[in-house]
Amino acid sequence: MRYSIFTLAAQTLRGHRGWKPVWRDANPRPEYDVIIVGGGGHGLATAYYLASQHGLSNIVVLEKGHIGSGNVGRNTTIIRSNYLLPGNTPFYELSMKLWEGLEQDINYNAMVSQRGVLNLYHSDAQRDAYARRGNAMRLAGADAELLDREQVRAMLPFLDYDNARFPIQGGLLQKRGGSVRHDAVAWGYARAADRCGVDIVQNCEVTGLTIDADGIHGVETSRGPIRARKVALAVAGSSSRLAAMAGLRLPIESHVLQAFVSEGLKPLIDTVVTFGAGHFYVSQSDKGGLVFGGDIDGYNSYAQRGNLPVIEDVMESGMALWPGLGRIRVLRHWGGIMDMSMDGSPIIDHTPVHGLYLNAGWCYGGFKATPASGWCFAHLIARDQSHPVAAAYRLDRFATGHVIDEKGAGAQPNLH
Prior knowledge:
Blueprint: H1 5-13, E1 31-37, H2 41-54, E2 59-62, E3 78-79, H3 89-106, E4 117-121, H4 124-139, E5 145-148, H5 149-155, E6 170-174, E7 178-179, H6 182-195, E8 199-201, E9 206-212, E10 215-221, E11 224-233, H7 239-245, E12 252-264, E13 272-275, E14 280-284, E15 289-300, H8 308-321, E16 330-341, E17 347-350, E18 356-360, H9 370-383, H10 397-400
Parallel strand pairs: 1-2, 1-11, 2-8, 4-13, 11-18
Antiparallel strand pairs: 3-7, 4-6, 5-6, 9-10, 10-11, 12-15, 12-16, 13-14, 14-15, 17-18
Helix pairs in contact: 2-6, 2-9, 3-9
């Protein structure tokens, strides 16, 4: 079924009794050309682009839970391409362009809202750093605008400008940035991949990898063995556990990142704002809740839940930026498992095991990268060569010294 105004009108006349499931809940077959482990945004996008751009259809996506139960449904929904380094900027700008055409491409309302992303600065040094980043963005084809204090005040008059510990001096604005409905991204890519013939198998955990001297030949799962010539891992915070099944030790650590939603409010903030003097970011959902977050919890974990010290830290940063938040009640919070790489940038590459491919190390940037990650990972799997905009995301860069240290924080994942 193709969604359109005409389909909606027809279903309205039929009492909405003719809608079909968004995708098939398939049973695994004994053999495929490509197995994608991980039914999150990256895995589903990879399957869709493998089918739609490279003509492959004998593909299966294996998800140990249900579609949308991982990080794709546990994030703060922000999209942007405001990066500095050459290894990152072209990739995230490709992702932004794919976001802009996503809904027409997959025929699904992902609620892409280009409401803008504003990074605040609080010192002369930070202003100069943002000016440098904005110039790098514009050289790479992305949009950027450096605002002064009064321009920011005109946009967001309710922030603390005069009595703050860290007075706001201005901000770097990317108008094309914004937010996307996270679960709609998962459902939309799942539906689009299914329409291309991809099997999506839920509640199917990978328990082992079938490997010999010639490479990988398939996987062992909770629903039986499945053979394939190529296996692609896109499992975010579980990457190290899956890689260990192949005898690989990855340069990543798994940490918890918490996100929060407030009670529903009338329209209040129409852009995404980040605090330059601490790690805090906030936007407002279409349901009215303020969606916000901050730092990772800082300890290694595979649990999708966080602890109280980071909750306190996030609330303190929010209050420093926007004192009015103190009158708002937090409705719920949740945790996702971040695969934090040593330089804060991702990995899209072959592994030393022939036929085994890796998509990992997304740190804080996984959701915004979803379309480009799928696009470039599909290119790698289909052609056995890196896409030009993802060529720097090599697994061996930590051995060769070609790191992409966007924040200049060094080899400390908890700082990225």
